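Thread title: Can someone regenerate the structure for this chain?

I was given the following input by a collaborator and told the matching structure tokens would be attached. They weren't. Posting the sequence so someone can regenerate them.
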Amino acid sequence: MPGTVEPRLLRGLRDLMPAEMHARQWIIDTIRRVYENYGYVPLGTPALEFLDVLRGTAGEESEKQLFEVAGPEETRLGLRFDQTVALARVVAQYPDLPRPFRRYQVAPVWRCDNPYEKRGRFREFIQFDIDAVGVESELADVEMITAMCDVMSAFGAAGPTGRPLPFRVRVSSRRVLNLLLPYAGIAPERASDVFRVLDKLDKLGAEKVRLELTTGYKDESGSPVPGLGFSGAQVDRIERFLAIRAPRRDDVLAQLAELFRDVPGAAAELEPLARVSAQLRALGYGDEVVVYDVSIARGLAYYTGTVFETELRELPEFGSVCSGGRYDDLVWRFLGERVPAVGTSVGVDRLLVALTELDRIPPPARRKATAQVLVTTFDKNLMDDYVAMTYELRRAGINTELYLGTEKRVGKQIRYADQYDIPVVVVCGSDEKARGEVQLKDMSVGRRLTAEVKDRNQWRAERPGQFNVPRAELVPAVQRLLRTIAAERV
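Best answer:
Regenerated them for you:
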């Protein structure tokens, strides 16, 4: 047909159907409850920023992932790749903001990377951040780590079984990583290059990381990956550092102290991690949920202190679903003033994929409709009655849809309710009207018994899940039925 356009999506983007949108909203609502319990307040910022605001903040690798946008009057714009840079701009632009400024923000971000490198990665995705700006205290770092733990625990408690969701928060520090530079004989100006490569350790493995630190290699497509040119002796020392592992945080700190015993100032740099660990232990966050892992580097260049990543123990190969760190110098480029800050971000869409794979989305969050009730409309002479019933239910706080489609047969309308997983259907024909009744249909019963029933005539005679109630008792009868269905789902 002339003038038609092929329906298609840009690579790395996706459409979310109602069931996925409900599940995503459940994730967002669960996170918001935790963040507000910690006293954080909401903030919104535009998707578009001036390109010079975004550039020069996160490192060369991240800047390659920027989506650039042509603005009016040839203005150079970019879609935000995270929400932290925009927060730094806000802090600099609005000097009257109270400090500390503790905000949460949930919004989409865009990165032009390879969406097929790892499942759960997209070019447009939702992040849910909290940040504390203007806080020097290490208690803010502790709070970020405990918030990540509490979010993951909340998903276990709110999940379909109520059993804990096994997770682990891996913590390191850029200040500790900086000790690696003199230990391995690496110039400070090479720090960002080294950390960028170390951040790929989980993705590439130790062998390819070593090659990228030295001579380089060719990737699976045959494209060259240039090496950083470090010597074998330097990389041996880096690998000695990365080999530090222990189930207890104190043991990791002891190994670091021994490794860096000849590095000036090492003891002072390790002390903050010791204090963070002690505070976590006092609050009940033990070594089984928060571990010290020196391989955590975080690829974004603006981190200056503690860094952390959260992984799900049942999907260890999936990668981080929540991460962040301290960035005390980011506001400087906007304000010319050092403003300490720390934050963490949940990758909502990555978490959606992970929890779906683990079957951790509870049934109420897997629904396809917002309606709890469908009022069928198969008799045109009773349309006023159908409309009246619909609004009675709505005014009682029951989400109700009035069927306004083209199907005239009641069976087809019930099938529509089944497609959208609407739990209750209201049926009223001339017979019910004459008796002063309406028929309620519990759709969950039909779904549960469909596989067991062999005789369609028997099915129609027994009418499982269907019963009549007086028209005047419609609202309380529906309320009782919805409570029963909810209890059975739990």
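The chain has two domains: 18-362, 369-489.
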